[in-house]
Amino acid sequence: MIRNAGRIDHVAGLVRPENFASVVARLTEVLGIAFYGPIERTAAGLRVCGSLESGVEIIAPLSDDPANPLNALLAARGEHWMSVVFGVADLDATCDQLARMGYTPTRRGSSLQPGDPHAATVASMEQASFAPDLFHGLPFVLSLRDDHEDG
Fold it and tell me: At residue 151, does pLDDT exceed 60?
């Protein structure tokens, strides 16, 4: 069941690895957010804790490897809320519309990985990321999240 269409699905914050645990702990303490994780996604070079219920995700690079784009973002902008992910009812149609306007995703694919803790409530989650020039420097990510009927 598509529940995120037409609204913000979640925000993602980028922090330095040494601050990751304390940021997650502080958000838990101050806002009462229950996070899953941390999960290490080695292929993407990141560690993540998130909460679909609250719509908050915290990300940190796994290493100080300068080839990791997350480290370049931290060097350029410091720790920050790096993206707002918008829910859509039809990811293909929305991407097609953006393609007609001259924009193609810089990345598109499933955000669910084997063993994700929220797989019990989320059947699938596809995302498409676009270059920040689409909205004058604002990061833009689309999401189609299909939740299980009882989730």
Answer: no
Return the amino acid letter for 61: P
How is the chain split into domains, by residue range? 8-147
Q: Which amino acid is at 25?
A: A
Looking at residue 99, what is its pLDDT?
Answer: 94
* Domain range 8-147, CATH architecture: Roll (3.10)
pTM (2 d.p.): 0.79
Cβ neighbours of 148 (radius 10 Å)? 12
Is the predicted pLDDT of residue 13 greater than 80, yes or no?
yes
CA 81, 83, 85, 86 torsion-angle sign: positive
Q: Are 111 and 43 in contact (CB under 8 A)?
A: no
**Maximum CA pair distance of the chain?**
45
Helix (H, G, I), strand (E, B) or coil at 46: strand
Q: In what helix (H) or strand (E) does residue 74 lie, and over which residues does it extend?
A: helix 69-77
Q: How far apart are CA 65 and CA 144, in angstroms?
A: 31
56 pLDDT higher than 90: yes
- The rounded distance, in Å, linking the Cα atoms of 81 and 50 is 13
